[in-house]
Design goal:
This is UPF0102 protein FGL86_14645. Belongs to the UPF0102 family. GO terms for molecular function: nucleic acid binding. InterPro entries: Restrct_endonuc-II-like, tRNA_endonuc-like_dom_sf, UPF0102_YraN-like. This protein is an alpha+beta fold. The chain has a single domain, classed as Trna Endonuclease, Chain: A, domain 1, CATH 3.40.1350. It has 2 helices and 5 strands. It has a 5-stranded mixed sheet. The chain is globular. The model has no long low-confidence stretch (mean pLDDT about 90).
Length: about 130
């Protein structure tokens, strides 16, 4: 008999755990967590953090291995546009006007053995 594949709830739980761990890792690097999983028009912002005076919108991408490519490769132009739109909505909703940037944290591996790859200013708002 073929083993059952993990269901969507398992994947969501694992994703939430990876996002939490990545946020804690970024806090160790000096960022301050402001909010997580911010629903906004057109998308979701995984983490909103502060790096000094800069508001940082962080996209977390996880893959167990690179067999199907590196997780950084999944933040394509379409995903970038969605993130920019969501960030603009967040800024308007919170009535914020401050320097911002978009970072991507790629997480590779299986829990608890994870490797983090942080790309600051991974793309610009256009």
């Amino acid at each position: 008999m073929k083993p059952l594949s993990p269901g969507p709830q398992d994947a969501r739980r694992r994703g939430a755990t990876v996002e939490t761990l990545a946020g804690e890792w970024l806090e160790q690097k000096g960022l301050t967590l402001i909010a997580r999983n911010q629903q906004a028009k057109g998308g979701e912002i995984d983490l909103v953090m502060r790096d000094g005076e800069t508001l940082v919108f962080v996209e977390i991408r996880h893959r167990a291995d690179t067999r199907h490519g590196h997780p950084l490769e999944t933040v394509n132009v379409t995903k970038q546009r969605r993130l920019v739109k969501a960030a603009r909505f967040y800024l308007a909703r919170e009535r914020l006007s401050c320097p911002c940037r978009f970072d991507v944290v790629a997480v590779l591996g299986r829990l608890p053995n994870l490797d983090y790859f942080w790309v600051k200013a991974a793309f610009d708002a256009y």
